[in-house]
């Protein structure tokens, strides 16, 4: 569905994306994960055909998305910058979408509007930020485009609405499978939705793998400082923090099974996908604590 090789995007002299490569399969839910400014939105806009690449290769549905009517007709891009005619109320907007999206499911849109308590006779400019994001999400569900892209779709939503959004996304995907890209700062909330993650770090592909393999790539270990330091000699250290005098908690990168029985004096902890991501992309050893050391 989506193939990129050495894909780059520059704005004048500023690099927004550098030599990104990936191969995203059809009918999968892929999380596009990265720290602020990593290049997530740029990548997804290139996929949607909103931006023209600078160098490299990108194919979506077998075509260049920037010049492809096929990609344009079969893609929807959902973010908090969506713009609609302010003269139309929400019901009229929903009616207009049926003209643009051949798979538009009006009954689903109306049911979701009712569930999320969005009055159809109001106007988009009168909605709160969270309610506007909810309306945008409903468009993404009901359009049922073969390629559906959500860029930070839960901006402004409270925790309860986010939970409903994730459940609705999964149920709608199971009912109507399609290729979904979703970026979010809440990886801990969406990891159960995802089949794969594409981690973009410092403008390029850092890791493209399954969620399970991401979690298996790191492990937490704690114990006496000397024992933990001996263990870290055999693995790539990602972080190490003193928990109490003489004891530390470390996170290391693993390349295979860790035979925990060989280290009876250490305690091992499996990390979540979000914890793995944070440690793998940490800007420097010691984290924010390092800034205050000696202050």
From TrEMBL:
Keyword Transferase on entry: no
InterPro entries (UniProt xref): AAA+_ATPase, ABC_transporter-like_ATP-bd, ABC_Transporter_VariousFunc, P-loop_NTPase
Identification of the protein by name: ABC transporter ATP-binding protein
All residue ranges annotated as the ABC transporter domain in the record: 2-227
PROSITE patterns (alphabetical): ABC_TRANSPORTER_2 (PS50893)
Originating species: Paenisporosarcina antarctica
Source lineage: Bacteria, Bacillati, Bacillota, Bacilli, Bacillales
Family matches, as Pfam families: ABC_tran
A single MF term (Gene Ontology): ATP binding
Keywords from the named record: ATP-binding, Nucleotide-binding, Transport
């Amino acid at each position: 569905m989506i193939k990129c090789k050495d894909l780059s995007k520059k704005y004048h002299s500023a690099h927004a994306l550098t030599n990104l490569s990936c191969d995203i399969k059809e009918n999968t839910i892929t999380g596009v994960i990265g720290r602020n400014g990593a290049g997530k939105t740029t990548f997804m806009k290139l996929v949607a055909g909103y931006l023209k690449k600078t160098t490299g290769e990108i194919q979506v549905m077998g075509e260049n998305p920037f010049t492809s009517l096929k990609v344009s007709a079969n893609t929807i891009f959902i973010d908090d910058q969506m713009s609609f005619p302010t003269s139309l109320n929400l019901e009229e907007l929903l009616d207009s979408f049926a003209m643009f999206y051949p798979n538009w499911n009006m009954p689903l849109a109306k049911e979701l509007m009712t569930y999320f308590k969005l009055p159809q006779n109001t106007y988009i400019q009168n909605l709160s930020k969270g309610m506007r994001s909810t309306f945008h999400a409903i468009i993404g569900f009901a359009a049922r485009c073969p390629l559906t892209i959500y860029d930070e779709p839960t901006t402004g939503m409270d925790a309860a609405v986010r939970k409903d959004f994730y459940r609705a996304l999964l149920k709608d995907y199971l009912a109507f499978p399609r290729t979904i890209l979703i970026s979010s700062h809440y990886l801990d909330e969406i990891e159960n939705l995802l089949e794969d993650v594409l981690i973009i770090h410092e403008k390029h592909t850092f890791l493209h793998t399954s969620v399970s393999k991401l979690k298996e790539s790191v492990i937490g270990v704690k114990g006496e400082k000397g024992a933990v330091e001996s263990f870290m000699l055999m693995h790539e250290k990602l972080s190490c923090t003193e928990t109490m005098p003489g004891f530390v908690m470390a996170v290391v990168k693993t390349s295979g099974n860790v035979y925990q029985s060989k280290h009876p004096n250490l305690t091992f902890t499996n990390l979540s996908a979000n914890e793995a991501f944070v440690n793998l992309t940490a800007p420097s050893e010691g984290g924010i604590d390092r800034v205050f050391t000696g202050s």
